[in-house]
C-alpha cells in the first residue's frame, strides 16, 4: 500500500508538472498605462498574476487573465512595469528580471507620446522595439510579440501649448498607432499591434465615451480618462484589456458577454460592458484580427462566476 501511495503521489506530481509546462506564459512590459495608475484596476486581482517587481500590481494583465479564464483558456500571466518609462528603461534596468525565463507571448509598449523628449517621433520606439525583441527571441526563438498602441491624452489635446493642441482628440491615437506600425514593420518578431488608442476613438465615435472631460461628461456617457485626463479610468483600462484579449487570442471580445465578471466587479453596468466590448470588436475587426462570434460563452449572472 505504501508503494502504491508513493506511485500515486509521483504520478500526481508528474501530471501537475506537465500541466504547468502546458500553460501559455505571457509577459506584459510597460508603464502606468499597463499597471493601471489612477484607478482601482491597479491592484485588481493582483493575486492572479505575477508581478516581477513585487509591487502588488494587477492592472491590465489581471483583467486579461480574468478574460482568458472566463473563456476557458490557460495563461500564466506576468508583468514588469515602471512609471513614466519607455522600452529603453526596461532594456537598461530590467533585463535581469525579464530574462529569468523564456516567454511564449509578450505584450509591450513605450512612452505615451512615443518619445518623452520629442513627442510624436517614433525613432526611439523603433530602435528599442528591435533591441527588446532580439533579447526576447534569445530566450525563446518562437516568442510572439504584440505592441500596444496607446490612447490620445486629453491633457495634451485640450490644454494650451501642448503637442496636440488644437487637433481632434482622435489624432494623437492615430499618430501613436502610426509609430507602432513602423516599429512592427521593422521587427519581424512582432506579430501585430494592439489598437487600443483607436478602440478608444471607436468608443467615442459610438457615443459611449465622452471625448472631452474638460467640459464635463455627458449624461449616459463614460469618461475613459481618470482625473488627470492623462491616464485611464477603470473604463479605459477595461477597454485596453479587451483589445489585448481579442488581439492575442483571436476571440471576439463580445463573446465574454454582458455578464462578464470583471466589469461586474469594477461596478460597470451591462450596457457599459456591452458597449466597450463592441468598441473593442469593431476596431479589431477593422484590423482583421478577430472573426465575429458574439455571445458564445454561457451567461449566468456575473456574481455566480466571479470566483
Helices and strands, with pairings:
Elements: H1 2-22, E1 24-30, H2 32-35, E2 50-51, H3 59-70, E3 75-81, H4 87-93, H5 95-98, E4 105-108, H6 123-139, E5 144-149, H7 169-185, E6 190-195, H8 196-205, H9 234-249, H10 261-265, H11 270-286
Parallel strand pairs: 1-3, 1-4, 2-3, 4-5, 5-6
Helix pairs in contact: 3-9, 4-6, 6-7, 7-8, 8-9, 8-11, 9-11
Short description:
The chain has 307 residues and is an alpha/beta fold. It is built from eleven helices and six strands.
Overview of this structure, please?
By secondary structure, the protein is of the alpha/beta class. Helix content is 42%, strand content 10%. It has one domain (34-304): 3-Layer(aba) Sandwich (Rossmann fold). The longest helix has 21 residues, at 2-22.
End-to-end Cα distance: 37 Å
> What helical percentage do the residues reach?
40-55%
What's the CATH H-level homologous superfamily? SGNH hydrolase
Mean pLDDT: 91
If you consult CATH, what is the topology? Rossmann fold
Please indicate the percent range of residues in DSSP E strands (runs of 2 or more): 5-15%
The total tally of domains equals 1
Structural class from helices and strands? alpha/beta
**C-alpha Rg (nearest Å):** 20 Å
| Number of contiguous helices | 11
Number of strands: 6
CATH architectural category: 3-Layer(aba) Sandwich
In the predicted model, the low-confidence regions spanning at least 5 consecutive residues are 1-22, 300-304
- Gross geometry: globular
Largest sheet: 6 strands, parallel
CATH class: Alpha Beta
Order of helices and strands: HEHEHEHHEHEHEHHHH
Order of strands across the main sheet: 2-3-1-4-5-6
Amino acid at each position: 500500500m505504501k508503494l502504491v501511495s508513493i506511485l500515486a503521489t509521483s504520478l500526481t506530481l508528474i501530471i501537475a508538472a506537465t500541466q504547468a509546462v502546458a500553460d501559455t506564459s505571457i509577459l506584459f512590459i510597460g508603464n502606468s498605462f499597463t499597471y493601471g495608475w489612477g484607478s482601482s484596476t491597479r491592484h485588481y486581482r493582483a493575486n492572479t498574476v505575477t508581478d516581477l517587481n513585487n509591487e502588488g500590481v494587477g492592472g491590465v494583465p489581471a483583467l486579461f487573465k480574468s478574460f482568458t479564464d472566463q473563456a476557458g483558456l490557460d495563461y500564466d500571466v506576468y508583468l514588469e512595469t515602471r512609471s513614466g518609462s519607455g522600452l529603453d528603461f526596461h532594456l537598461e534596468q530590467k533585463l535581469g528580471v525579464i530574462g529569468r525565463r523564456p516567454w511564449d507571448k509578450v505584450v509591450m509598449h513605450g512612452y505615451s507620446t512615443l518619445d518623452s523628449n520629442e513627442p510624436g517621433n517614433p525613432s526611439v520606439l523603433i530602435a528599442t522595439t528591435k533591441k527588446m525583441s532580439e533579447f526576447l527571441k534569445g530566450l525563446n526563438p518562437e516568442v510572439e510579440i504584440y505592441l500596444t498602441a496607446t490612447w490620445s491624452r486629453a491633457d495634451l489635446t485640450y490644454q494650451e501649448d501642448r503637442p496636440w493642441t488644437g487637433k481632434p482628440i482622435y489624432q494623437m491615437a492615430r499618430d501613436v498607432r502610426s509609430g507602432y506600425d513602423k516599429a512592427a514593420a521593422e521587427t519581424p518578431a512582432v506579430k501585430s499591434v494592439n489598437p487600443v488608442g483607436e478602440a478608444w476613438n471607436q468608443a467615442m465615435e459610438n457615443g459611449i465615451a465622452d471625448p472631452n472631460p474638460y467640459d464635463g461628461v455627458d449624461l449616459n456617457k463614460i469618461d475613459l480618462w481618470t482625473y488627470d485626463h492623462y491616464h485611464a479610468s477603470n473604463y479605459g483600462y477595461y477597454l485596453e484589456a479587451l483589445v489585448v484579449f481579442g488581439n492575442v487570442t483571436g476571440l471576439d471580445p463580445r463573446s465574454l458577454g454582458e455578464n462578464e465578471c470583471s466589469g461586474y466587479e469594477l461596478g460597470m453596468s451591462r450596457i457599459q460592458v456591452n458597449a466597450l466590448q463592441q468598441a473593442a470588436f469593431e476596431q479589431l475587426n477593422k484590423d482583421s484580427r478577430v472573426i465575429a462570434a458574439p455571445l458564445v460563452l454561457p451567461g449566468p449572472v456575473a456574481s455566480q462566476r466571479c470566483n
